[in-house]
TrEMBL record:
Keyword Plastid: no
Protein name: Ectoine/hydroxyectoine ABC transporter permease subunit EhuC
Record domain ABC transmembrane type-1: where: 13-202
Family (UniProt): Belongs to the binding-protein-dependent transport system permease family.
TM stretches of this protein: 12-37, 49-70, 183-201
Organism, scientific name: Streptomyces thinghirensis
Location of this chain's protein in the cell: Cell membrane
InterPro entries with a match to the protein in the record: AA_ABC_transptr_permease_3TM, ArtM/GltK/GlnP/TcyL/YhdX-like, Ectoine_EhuC, MetI-like, MetI-like_sf
Length: 234
């Protein structure tokens, strides 16, 4: 490829990274707000949070992007730029999945910890801030890492709005060169490199958070048989 086409691809990488950053921030905020609301003592709050989760988890992210960018503007008289439309659609959709991660992690905390907070006369917010979240957040990191990778791959959907992300730029280069195998191989490798780096960062964050609460990340154990047991001989 020429330097101009490579520049186009690199611009697409930058747009994808920006979209990933903004939509992951929104998804994280939605995940914690809705996930904590799913554990609220008032059934009305739990019900409303559950409705949100089911609606956004049960609809297509692609269709949600269509709604935000093409359907809502005529109804409300305003138009979002592609970056913010993609951020809103992806953040709300993947935040619904993340809320279940938060709810599950909070529910997995030892009930004795919650009872200890009640015995100390902590308010519900104090119990959440000082007891539940510090223990639950490290357990959320592995599933959140998977969700972040899914969100990275989901950013390719914004190309339907004509947004110049990596997938859209790669398609322009393919049309210019009339070469699919080479271009899409490069695109696959770029997505893989970004996903690999995200995985490394999240794994380091997991170790740091678990060390902060006196835990260590699980390590795979290797069992070596005794020499006398090899071949079934004792």
């Amino acid at each position: 490829m020429t330097s101009g086409l490579w520049e186009l691809v690199l611009q697409g990488v930058w747009v994808t990274i920006q979209l990933l950053f903004f939509s992951s921030l929104l998804a994280a905020a939605v995940s914690f707000v809705i996930g904590v609301a799913r554990t609220h003592r008032l059934w009305v709050v739990r019900f409303l949070a559950g409705v949100y989760t089911e609606v956004f988890r049960g609809t297509s992210a692609l269709v949600m992007i269509f709604w935000v960018f093409f359907v809502l503007p005529p109804a409300f008289g305003w138009q979002l730029v592609p970056m913010w439309a993609g951020t809103l659609a992806l953040g709300l959709t993947y935040g619904a999945y993340g809320s279940e991660i938060v709810r599950g992690a909070l529910g997995a905390v030892d009930p004795a910890q919650k009872e200890g907070g009640i015995a100390l006369s902590f308010t519900p917010w104090q119990r959440m801030k000082l007891i539940l979240l510090p223990q639950a957040v490290p357990e959320m990191i592995p599933p959140f890492s998977n969700l972040l990778i899914e969100l990275l791959k989901g950013t390719a959907l914004v190309s339907i709005m004509g947004m110049g992300d990596l997938a859209f730029s790669g398609n322009l280069v393919r049309l210019a060169l009339q070469e699919s195998a080479e271009i899409y191989t490069y695109i696959l490798l770029i997505y893989f490199v970004i996903a690999f780096l995200l995985t490394r960062v999240m794994r380091g964050l997991e170790k740091k958070l678990k060390a902060g609460v006196g835990k260590t990340a699980p390590k795979r154990k290797t069992v070596t048989p005794e020499p006398a047991e090899i071949g079934g001989v004792r």
